[in-house]
Amino acid sequence: MEQRRIVLGVTGGIAAYKTPELVRTLRRGGAAVRCAMTPAAGEFVAPLVLQTVSGEPVRTGLFDRVEEGAIDHVALADWADLLIVAPATANTLAKLAHGLADDVVSTVALATQAPLLVAPAMNVNMWRHPATQSNLATLRQRGVRVVGPETGALACGWEGEGRMAEPAAIAAAAALVGGPRPLAGEVVLVTAGGTREPVDAVRFLGNRSSGKMGFAVAGEAARRGAEVVLVAGPSALPTPAGVRRLDVETAQEMREAVLGELPRATIAVMAAAVADFRAARPEIRKIRKEDLPSEETLTLELVRNPDILAEICRHERRPVVVGFAAESQDLVETARRKLARKGCDLLVANDIAREGSGFDSDTNAVVFVWPGGEVEELPSLPKTEVAALLLDRVAKLRGGDG
Ligand code: C5P
Fold first, then answer.
1. In this structure, are residues 173 and 211 in contact, taking their beta carbons and an 8 Å threshold?
2. Which residue from 15, 43, 39, 58 is spatially nearest to 102, judged by alpha carbons?
């Protein structure tokens, strides 16, 4: 955000009350922010609040001689290297889609050459209306970025989609717009987290994977301009900005989701801890110990799950494929054998027995293992940095420079 010049266009929705926080978040990141408001926005947030938190004069009207004298609307449009419209009402989205310019926000949007990010906020029925959806499709097709809306309780009393994305999420999405995009044009498919294999109505077989490594890869790939699909096992982690997330539970569901996305993927990073086995016959009801033949033991029959990584490596038109291996002994040797067996282009091995590495940790000490047998050992690093180094290597495999 350092050095960025952001114009924040505020339109007339109740979520406008969150925009002072958005201005502060953007400024904390190092951006300079100038605000422009529609007349309706002034009903929800006072111009003086935005003026104070931005430290810049605020534009409220198109024809105000004093405002226009200080910085005219075209100069404001030219000054911006990013325009954010938040909240973006259904009315403003319609104006933006059709090129209307009858208030200072829509006029700046038409005049600027800067990229546009919108954060829609409205009643759920207005959001779902075909007119709004078609306006959004028009904007998206034109390259406009959209963040949110989120689903939940709406100020109007309805439940559903329509809540403006939180200021932190809008700022994160803004950071993705306009920066260097070395992975632009790539479609990155990432799996993350552990799978859950049902045993009965309440129990499952799972593992300790937190999903942090895969989520970090997905977020970093999006920051580098890739289109990212994240197939995630159950995880409370927030979806990284700019990432499309598909939630799955079992290995079989993960396989279906991965195969569905595979034809478009150019890079696949399989960071999920997929259960190797599932219960052969999961009970629909809860297993009660009173009903068992013996109260002391219970025998579960397990069957093998599909190996998703090995399967996609065998595909005729496969993307560049990265596998992960969590090992607790003979790290490099086991990883070499695993890479050969699965047939991936790069294997990221981590020693889960080591301090500051593996499941649920924010850091990871990994070794990159290449098909020729070479290894590259990294020190313990934050998972976000491991993700960045991994994507540098993957970009080289794709013939770029990361
Ligand atoms: O064989 P192992 O489970 O150690 O291999 C780990 C790698 O294989 C990871 O990349 C994991 O996502 C992937 N995997 C898979 N399907 C399985 C088991 C593992 O895709 N059933």
1. no
2. 39
Checking if the pLDDT of 293 tops 80, the result is yes
326 CA from centroid of ligand 1 (Å): 9
Among the atoms of ligand 1, which is closest to the Cα of residue 272? 12
Question: The tokens of 8 are what?
Answer: 């924040």
**CB of 307 shorter than 6 A to ligand 1:** yes
pTM: 0.71
For 216-263, the pLDDT digits (tens) are 999 999 988 899 999 999 999 988 878 899 999 999 999 999 999 999
152: CB partners within 8 A, 6+ apart: 159, 163
Contact call for residues 266 and 186 (beta carbons, < 8 A): yes
In terms of pLDDT, which residue wins out, 2 or 4?
4
pLDDT per residue over 315-365, tens digit each? 988 999 999 998 888 999 999 999 999 999 999 999 887 776 667 788 888
Strand partners, 120: 88
Q: Kindly report, residue by residue over 11-58, the tens digit of the pLDDT.
A: 999 999 999 999 999 999 999 999 999 999 999 999 999 999 999 999
pLDDT band at 76 (very low <50, low <70, confident <90, very high): very high
Which residues are within 8 A (CB) of 88 and not within 5 positions of it... i.e. 6 or more apart? 11, 96, 118, 119, 120, 121
Residue 313 falls in the annotated catalytic set? no
Q: Which atom of ligand 1 is nearest to the CA of 258?
A: 20
Residue nearest atom 6 of ligand 1, based on CA coordinates: 325
Partners of 350 in the β-ladder: 326, 366
C-alpha torsion angle, residues 292, 297, 303, 309 (rounded to 10):
130
Ligand 1 atom nearest to 347, measured from its CA: 10
* Best of 274, 346, 359 for a ligand 1 pocket test (most atoms within 8 Å of beta carbon): 274
**Whether residue 311 has its Cβ less than 6 Å from ligand 1:** no
Q: Is 171 in contact with 22 (CB distance < 8 Å)?
A: yes
- Domains of the chain, start order: 5-176 (3.40.50.1950), 187-397 (3.40.50.10300)
> Following DSSP, what letter does each residue of 16-78 receive, concatenated?
GGGHHHHHHHHHHTT-EEEEEE-TGGGGTS-HHHHHHHHTS--B--SS-HHHHHHS-HHHHHH
Active-site choice (35, 156, 313, 344): 156
